[in-house]
Automatic annotation (TrEMBL):
Gene3D superfamilies: 3.40.50.11590. Pfam families: DUF364. This is Putative heavy-metal chelation domain-containing protein. InterPro entries: DUF364 (IPR007161). Residues 4-93 form the Putative heavy-metal chelation domain. It comes from marine sediment metagenome.
Amino acid sequence: SYLLEIDPVGNELPMIACEDVLPKSDINIITATALINHSLQRLLELGSNGINIVLGPSTPLSPVLFDFGADILAGVKVYNKNAIVKSITQGVKKFKLLNGIEPVCLYKK
């Protein structure tokens, strides 16, 4: 397994390594932040030989991403906006401790 990072530390690989690593990988877990930094489309293309999972609370739960090579979208759904706002304003920093959200996965048909 490999961990690719924009600013690698320790055993992490620089993002440039994605050109070699992703085409050979069976499973690629890609943070939804890649959408924000404009690298998602390329990462999905490079990982097309494997299963591409877009993961994180900022994952858009839109089937449109399946057209670009995503196989699984793993994000969250807010079911209680007051609870999530309260958690955040009370300083909850660990994602799994936030109230008012539930994990959601969408799978490509």
